[in-house]
Design goal:
mainly alpha, Arc Repressor Mutant, subunit A, 2 strands, globular
Length: 190
């Protein structure tokens, strides 16, 4: 792909992502009625808990790719709003399990309805065939990003590096495994 076209496509997708994020934020907050204010990431966490109710706080932080301290802050706000409860694991007191309350389940229903309405409105300008093509291309791009964003740690996890920005954080430190290329492989492997 020509560099100019790739740059234009990157900019267009970035702008689209920002616009979708803003519209989703507005739609979900209008769609979720109640006396609590939803903060960034809480609707995603509610949706995740609706699928994995009783997950550990640590697993939720890893799944959402946020620092444990950020997850704690988010959970404290949600607990204060009555959306979740936190309970210690019966078999391991060090583990905190997170559960949706009835109010949390209602917030999930309302926010998912708002998100479905937004998705329908957003993609209404595309034919069914164009939507299928866009989905296939988006999945292909996501797979490629997964390859480009390989953490250098054994086991493929970023172990505390927020959002997998491994190379951004590691540029300041000497690499203990020797010189590596942009994809994380040792220079001898290239």
């Amino acid at each position: 792909m020509e560099t100019t076209t790739a740059s234009q496509l990157y900019n267009a997708l970035s702008r689209l992502g920002r616009q979708i994020h803003r519209m989703e934020h507005r739609a979900v907050h209008r769609g979720v009625r109640g006396c609590f204010k939803m903060y960034r990431g809480q609707t995603h966490l509610l949706a995740l808990l609706s699928q994995k109710n009783g997950a550990s706080q640590r697993d939720l932080a890893e799944e959402m790719d946020v620092r444990p301290s950020s997850m704690t802050e988010m959970l404290l706000r949600m607990e204060a709003a009555g959306l979740i409860t936190r309970k210690q694991d019966e078999s391991d007191q060090r583990i905190m399990r997170i559960f949706l309350t009835e109010a949390g389940e209602e917030a999930v229903r309302q926010s998912s309805g708002a998100a479905i309405d937004l998705a329908a409105a957003l993609f209404d300008c595309l034919t069914a065939e164009e939507q299928a093509q866009m989905l296939a291309l988006t999945e292909k791009l996501n797979a490629n990003l997964g390859v480009l964003d390989r953490p250098w740690m054994p086991g493929g996890r970023h172990h505390g590096f927020h959002h997998g920005h491994v190379w951004h954080h590691l540029r300041r430190f000497p690499n203990p495994f020797g010189p590596r290329g942009n994809d994380g492989r040792a220079q001898d492997d290239l």
